[in-house]
Amino acid sequence: xxxxxxxxxxxxxxxxxxxxxxxxxxxxxxxxxxxxxxxxxxxxxxxxxxxxxxxxxxxxxxxxxxxxxxxxxxxxxxxxxxxxxxxxxxxxxxxxxxxxxxxxxxxxxxxxxxxxxxxxxxxxxxxxxxxxxxxxxxxxxxxxxxxxxxxxxxxxxxxxxxxxxxxxxxxxxxxxxxxxxxxxxxxxxxxxxxxxxxxxxxxxxxxxxxxxxxxxxxxxxxxxxxxxxxxxxxxxxxxxxxxxxxxxxxxxxxxxxxxxxxxxxxxxxxxxxxxxxxxxxxxxxxxxxxxxxxxxxxxxxxxxxxxxxxxxxxxxxxxxxxxxxxxxxxxxxxxxxxxxxxxxxxxxxxxxxxxxxxxxxxxxxxxxxxxxxxxxxxxxxxxxxxxxxx
Length: 390
What we know:
This protein is an alpha/beta fold. The chain is 52% helix and 8% strand.
């Protein structure tokens, strides 16, 4: 100890006016800083445990508990010990489904410093929560740039392999769909349901700018599986315009035979294989109103599919990403994972009902030749069946 240090320590115990009060102030500040450091270290040691307990409530919103410092060992010590119940609460899917996803991606993702298991969990955490890259990075002990890279890597591979999970059904599969739909809702020859879902896009921090809108156009079947998806350019909000610009507009006539059709709302233009409800400035007839009612109930499949996906992947509630290509990636990834989960877990919301009508309705093409005539034929058939039922 040098002379200055000795004099400084001695002055702490002298009670006279010659003692430099600044020395006492320095010691007091040092004590406060030391005490705060101990509190902060205690806080960060307990944070992973508290975060795990919070996860049991099913609330993934990082905005409620912002993480401003990287946590070591959260994935290794906490996530890897999650039970199947924890996975359902935290990742909105079973543990076995996540393992199946990892097994599938092993064929496409090259080995790296970060294990594929951890990458997939980081990617899923980003989708099922409203956490930012920085929040997820701090939680999993990595820089936000690493999280961004992981997201783009996994999402890109999923998009490239989307036709393994999002495919138009075969003729045999379409036959099963129209039988089930007709048995449940009495709407004949329906093989799918089309609609578009709006997503907010843009920074959450800039409150002055209104978020942009991007549309996801999707067709689903009776099992709520997406059989066709298309993401619009940011800012395009007209459903029929997005449909015209999508590949489906040209391919639909090849996908769906004349007797069959998909159902869409009045925002779409009536086509031979895309049946929309009656709209008129004049009053509709009772038969047309009945047709519209059954059409609306039958078309509810697609709305239900969107609801399940948005509830599972909370990132879609407001996509806090600026780059258009990244926005498309995250939406495509959500759709693909939606189907992946249904393929491995099924859907508890879809009830298996007894098939009461096995034969499709035959439409005479010599009489019914265009979209207007076809809709009128379906209207007449639905009203006839309704009168026949007790």
